[in-house]
Amino acid sequence: MTTNWIDVLLWGVLPYVMVVVLVGGTIWRYRYDRFGWTTRSSELHESRLLRIGSPLFHFGLLVVIVGHVIGLVIPASWTAAVGVTQEAYHVQALVLGGIAGFSTLAGIAILIYRRRTTGPVFSATTRNDKVMYVVLVAAIVAGLATTLLGAAGGEGHDYRASVSPWFRSLFVLQPDIASMAAASTGFHVHTLIGMALFVIWPFTRLVHAFTAPLQYLFRPYIVYRSRAGGPAARPARRGWERV
Amino acid sequence: MRVMAQIGMVMNLDKCIGCHTCSVTCKQAWTNRGGVEYVWFNNVETRPGQGYPRRYADQERWRGGWVRNRRGRLQLRAGGRWRKLATIFANPVLPHISDYYEPWTYDYETLTEAPLGDDFPVAQPRSLLTGEPMQVEWSANWDDDLGGGPEVGAQDPVVEKLRRESEDAVKLDYERAFMFFLPRICEHCLNPSCVASCPSGAMYKRAEDGIVLVDQDQCRGWRMCVTGCPYKKVYFNHRTGKAEKCTFCYPRVEVGLPTVCSETCVGRLRYIGLFLYDVDRVGEAAAVPDEQDLYEAQLDILLDPADPDVVRAARREGIPEDWIAAAQRSPVYKLAKEYRVALPLHPEFRTMPMVWYVPPLSPVVDRLTETGHDGESAANLFGAVDALRIPVEYLAELFTAGDPEPVRDVLNTLAAMRAFMRDVTLGREVDESIPAAVGMDGAQIMEMYRLLAIAKYDERYVIPTAYEGEAHQLEELACSLDFEGGPGMGGEGPDGGPPFGEASGRPVPVSVETFHALADRQTADDFGDTESRRGRVNLLNWDGRGRPEGLFPPRRTAAERARDGNGSPPPDDGDGPAGDAR
Q1: Is A58 annotated as a binding residue?
Q2: Using one digit for the tens of pLDDT, what is the confidence trace for B341-386?
Q3: Contact A154/B at CB under 8 A
Q4: CATH number of the domain at B1-15+267-473, please?
Q5: Are B16 and B44 in contact (CB under 8 A)?
Q6: Sign of the C-alpha dihedral, residues B535, B537, B540, B545?
Q7: Which of A101, A179, B233, B264 has CA atoms 20 to 30 A from the CA of B345?
Q8: A5-215: CATH superfamily
Q9: Domain segments of chain B: what residues?
Q10: Which residue of A has its CA nearest to B199?
Q11: Cα separation of B472 and B209, whole Å?
Q12: How far is B200 from chain A (nearest CA, A)?
């Protein structure tokens, strides 16, 4: 199969552009906007729906992420080697992935409904948030649709033979463009939306995921910090040098 | 013993008239921004009353503070680390905005912009959250001065608890009602459960003065601190998505000024000073089995700053001398531990709060006088403490986890001070048996009287500054000898300068540079040396003698000026800077 320039652009160039923006953007945001790095929770305004929707969405998403990692990173030959047949793998992926995907979708539906109908929450929603929600929902819907349509179509398109090799090949800087190009349109759409999500990630409230507070499990309860020296020790900021 | 210093506050409730000046000035200073419209770092509650946010003291519902588990160890009431992370996507016990109140403003523009008509224009209340017209139903002090009467007052968690024990424990009907005011700020606890609850580690206790702060750059808005604080004194800024709280006005305290709430208190009822405490024993003291022992346990870890052992230990920990001296003069230590008239608020939350309260005694004297007794005689006063209009049991629920004895002792001490001072004021012979009855002597009573009644500014606020303690780090006292032959050694370093050119390396302190430049000039034979940059003239220490080389840039010749094409040269009057002025 020959590769045309569109495939090269989409599956050979775009992923690296995405990584550069994701990593560079995150570093930039962390350096210059640490104050804006927050969940911007709206639980203060409304908690009844949030307490159903938010855990549903987040826990669903965690399972989905684990599913993606397993599906993309672990080669089919490895699972076969430990005695999991192709069919068994697909059934469990479909069942677990379907449940998790639906939870995620239901969760975000509840959250968006809540955001639209609760006055203070809606007025705290920025344009940035709205764009992010569109891309996020599109990614979830496209992913879920691909999974279900694949299953409904009987055999289903085996992404472990097309998308996964391409994904792994990206890390060794030799993108297997041909195998990704051979995947079905559903996977193409889902992958493109996914990349769009990662591109806008550093510039939205999604950054809070990068600072998931796992260190909380290991630190002492009470934190002491020393006052950093006092004004004499503080470096003067630009424009505020001492006269 | 590991000594740490803690800045603390005492409020004398006998003097609080509930004017809310502290709240208003605090709000103007700290929370007059969007996102914290509903936030009062300092608020004044009428007791009995629900408080702000409503019924915050009911930990069955709000799950703040610590509890002692079966193994005798402290754990967060709202759950430990794993539970925190498991519920991080939706905190199950976060107060709703309506538990505080929905902030509002008025549509003032209508008053001037309304078209001419038969109806008088009205400024409608509008929500500050949505901008929509709203019905105002509650605020930070809606039940001020017992507003709402017995219906609202009966929902005070303390009243509820006392009534469960005895139906007529607290009277709220008009004839027998009582009230007093309770100003509240962050307690800056020794064992802060908000800090322990913060998953990000953004909240911390300052090692030098124990002030509890939120690092705004590190806070990620997980909201666990709001639940963790049993006093509900950490607030969520709904606009920035970050937690905010009372800072003990640290920028003021660092330079020796009292907090805004203290400075503006018209009753002059607040005291600020240092405690020295043994940080190694905090955990053990906070975990004593019986809640009613917590007050004593808390007093127990406060160290006597006059004790030479304590002073030695404090020096070992690097606590500066002026801080130790301030601790020895500390009004809060005197009121809390020496005179034992100040009590912690809700010690049963096991956070070791560091804002203490002198419980209110009045209006006992008037009541006694009304009944035909001598209202200021010690014998009558001591007997009357249990018959006070403000029930001792109520105060005990606030200040000593329900143990009435310490409250009775405090009220007796205050009563003894009144009786003793009456004799002093009237010039009668003083009765040493009065102070003796409360375990004090006349001199101590006089000192306490001075602190509580005269309450001079510099005795109420004994605040060591942050900088005297760090003076040894200030550049004026340090001689920078960064490298061999460096400026501090009178040279310019190897190869005539710092390693990577003039701007590299650490800056030479101005004082060092000035000292050497002046010394050079005073000992030199001529007015400066053009060969070395040391010869450049620093106008700050130019003594005005002569015209040293380097004061002005080299004079250009007429030929050079013509070559630059500057047109006709300015008239040159020879000597002096005026000729070179451009």
Answers
A1: yes
A2: 999 999 999 999 999 999 998 677 777 777 777 777 888 888 788 7
A3: no
A4: 3.30.70.20
A5: yes
A6: positive
A7: B264
A8: Transmembrane di-heme cytochromes, Chain C (1.20.950.20)
A9: 1-15+267-473, 475-561
A10: A216
A11: 18
A12: 5
